[in-house]
Amino acid sequence: MSEGTAAARPASKWNRRVEALTERLNPIIVKEIRQGLRTRVFWVCFGLMLLACFVISLVAYAAAMERSLSSPGQVFFFGYFFCLGLVHFFIIPYSAYRSLAREREEETWVLLSLTGLGAKRIIRGKFGSFFAQALLYGCSAGPFMLFSYYLNGIDLPTILTVIALGAAFMVFLTCVSVCAATLAESRLWRGLVHFLLLALLLAATALGLSVAGGLTFDGRRVMNDDGFVPAIAAALWGMISFGNLMYQAAAARLSLPTEDYAKGPRLALLFQIAGSMALLLWIFFEQHRSYQLVMTGQGVLVAALFLVGVFMLGGAEPVHEVHFRAKGLSLLRPGAVRSFRFVIALIALTTAVWTALYGAADDLPANPEPGLFFILATGAYAALFLSFPVVVARLSGFVALNTAVGLRVLTVVVFVLAASVPPLIGLLVGIRPDDPVLNLFNPLVGSVNFGAVPWSDESPMSVQMLGVLVIAALLLTVAADRMLAWREAEGRREREAARLGPAQSPAPGEG
Amino acid sequence: MSLLEVKNLTRDFGSFRAVDNVSFNVDPGVIMGFIGPNGAGKSTTMRIIATLDTPTWGEVFLDGHSVVNEPDRARPLIGYMPDRYGTYEDMTVFEFLDFFARAYGLKGAERRARVESVMEFTRLTELRDKLTSALSKGMKQRVALGRTLLHDPKLLILDEPADGLDPRARIELRELLKALGEQGKAVLISSHILTELSEMCDACAIIEQGRLLATGPVEEILASSRGGSAESELELRLLSAGEAAERAERLLLEQPHVKEVVAAGARLRVRIALPSGTTPTPSWVDEVSAELLKALVAQSVPVCSFQVHEADLEDAFMKVTRGRVA
Questions:
Q1: B170 and B284: one domain?
Q2: A148-202 per-position pLDDT tens digit
Q3: Residues B130 and B206 grouped into a single domain
């Protein structure tokens, strides 16, 4: 094979310009756009969306002539946004999911990895190509939306807010879908994930369109509300930080075994928690030093940490010394034991910060105990329900339970059982479903009991009960930590045995 | 220094040991066949060499770079073709190769020239605007091979590339691999079709149940398969069947080293063996053959052809793997 033995085809001026432009782009974007423009889905969706917008415009024109609607702008803007929203909230994220899932099913992912592009760049390329498609759809629907402004009844800030929030939601859903494509390995789990994602996207589309409808028809009132800006800021922050976390998690799952897969997601989680805490601290010190804000902050952050912890529990074990030699802080290195410690450390840190902050609230109630109990109890519940499944899986000895998926399923099952069985027992034996003792280890009813409103006659939970919960959480956390550490040490011993084995018994027939 | 050095490679999946202390070398320009039954550990070994997996223990060096500790340096030297070719069905041949050339970091005129050059080498130029979904298996395999060559790697790792190909596509593949070997590229190729490998490989490694049973140049393995044995086979063809064949059979069975004669018309298959306890010399088969031929000619048996059955890779494989690892 000789270099340049065959002359390249002569290219037209236009082709050369396109070529020069694509040189600077991520190769995945070029590939995906080439493939995307060839798919029937793109042309059918694009054609149908334009057709629907055109038909709505004709109806709008007719309505404007007859003056049959009082504020036609709102109705027709929502009509156009509905068409765009279906594509942005469902088709684009689902296509991104299918694109990555197909790469994995057909094993072309392996070929991409070997080119040296790297998991993150490949995923960014996927995002880029689907955002380019989304932009194309948006640009096509844009003139129609602008047209609705001239129909009166809707103002420009409302239009821009709905479009901006819609775009952010689309980006977030695409991150979720891409992350979902990396979740499952086996065909059965892939099928389940596919089904769940379809359900999630349908629900998200309905939610997105409902919010857009609410803002469109009631925009002025909603946007003038004091809580609107903080709510939008919180929603945007949630989408950005969770989107980033899912992007990092997807890249980690798709990394080659020779790469340090742990650092990205853990830094993303740290960024999310630190950012959320900074945001809430700013609100606390600058806006409203409320004890309820502290309790809400603890509840939301611990719930987020528990949710992320469920996925981090099954952290892949290091398979080679190269992982143990990974640089950086110990908690950022690969391995299930370090991912467990990382989440527990974040839960402890969050609980400590909110506990300290609780005392600084201006509006502390006469009986401050329940709020403090709530903060400590939620932290303890999160640690307990992340540790207990690890201990159970390890003690049971079942291989299936000790896999990443097995451990996640077990955690969810344990949580659901703990949250639902005690109230049912209460109903069956004729005592209150929210009985304090019966629900001591119920993460939902227990949290509510511990945080019971301070103006009630008496807190249903005692400090002794909190002590039992905290001690149980501590013991289980230490036990889970030791078990995970022991499993890692066991893996190391096996590797050492593998190293020594060949030296003791030379391979037969070699040479 | 060899281009590829595999040292004590071991890979465990839980309690199952897929690759057990495998060591071999591949020099530049050498086509090495990697032979073994299904589940022998060929694909696992190849994936580790291709940086797609890590060993439980052991090391792999590619041009002096460890594939575990320096995968980023090793990867550009590797062209890997898995057993599934992995083509994008909705791209043309040119678009597919152009995409991978971009992914490998080739730019502008260099990329275009490289893609054209690879298409010419793999005889894909006429198919450049065809969708890969419209290609036959043999053509897809050439596209996949072209993809592995885009970044001019020093080592090609081909996992079962001849699987499912028709005879013509196999011959084309063999020619392409020979040409690559002549260009100085090392090729590690696994296959079940041992006759194919024996024609194209310079060296081979035989693996079974994760353990390497033999490795070295094909001639050496065949010679060790022939030379060390106290048994061999001869093939005779007579002018006619019937009375001449019966006479030859009787005569041969009277000879001291003949253990068995199987007649099929005018063809006879003769199994010869040394007495137990006798150490085989390199020339014992030739000496016994000469004696038998002399005896047949002396008795006026009309012999048309008389030859020692040459051991091939299949024989070597069967001999090396038989009962070595239970």
A1: no
A2: 888 777 888 888 999 999 999 999 999 999 999 988 777 888 889 999 999 999 9
A3: yes
Domain contains B265: yes
User: Between chains, do A3 and B117 touch, taking CB under 8 Å as contact?
Assistant: yes
Residue B75 lies in a domain: yes
Q: Is A485 exposed, middle or buried (0-12, 13-18, 19+ CB in 10 A)?
A: middle
B40 and B86 together in one domain: yes
Nearest to A107 among B53, B55, B82 (CB): B82
ipTM rounded to 2 decimals? 0.77
CATH number, domain of B54, equals 3.40.50.300
Backbone angles phi, psi at B306, to 5 degrees: -150, 115
Q: How many CB atoms lie within 10 A of CB B305?
A: 9
| Cβ separation A7–B95 shorter than 8 A | no
Return phi, psi of residue A406, to 5°. Answer: -60, -45
Is B188 found in the same domain as B88? yes
Which domain range does residue B82 map to? 4-223
Range 28-47 of A in CB contact (< 8 A) with B: 28, 30-31, 34-35, 38-39
Among B102, B106, B121, B157, pick the best mutation site for testing chain A contact (most A Cβ within 10 A): B102
Tell me if residue A103 falls in helix, strand or coil: helix
Inter-chain residue contact A27 with B54, CB threshold 8 Å: no
CA distance A410 to A142: 47
Predicted confidence (pLDDT) per residue in A353-393, tens digit = 999 998 888 888 878 888 899 999 999 999 999 999 999 98
- Contact of A484 with A389, CB cutoff 8 Å: no
- C-beta separation of B215 from B205 below 8 A: yes
* Three-state secondary-structure class, residue B137: helix
Q: Which of A326, A346, A321, A345 is nearest to A488 (CA)?
A: A321
Same domain? B55 vs B128:
yes
Which stretches within A37-155 are classed as H helix? 40-66, 72-86, 92-105, 108-114, 119-149
* Same-domain status, B184 and B58: yes
Task: Looking at the structure, tell me whether residues B219 and B277 fall in a common domain.
Answer: no
Residue B138 lies in a domain: yes
DSSP one-letter string for B206-234: EEETTEEEEEEEHHHHHHHHHHT-SEEEE
User: CB A472: neighbour CB atoms within 10 A?
Assistant: 17
From B208, B223, B238, the end of a domain falls on B223
Indicate which CATH number applies to the domain containing B253: 3.30.70.100
Q: Cα A78 to the chain's mean position, in Å? A: 28
Q: Is residue B44 part of a domain?
A: yes
Same domain, B196 and B148: yes
Collapsed DSSP state (helix, strand, coil) of residue B237? strand
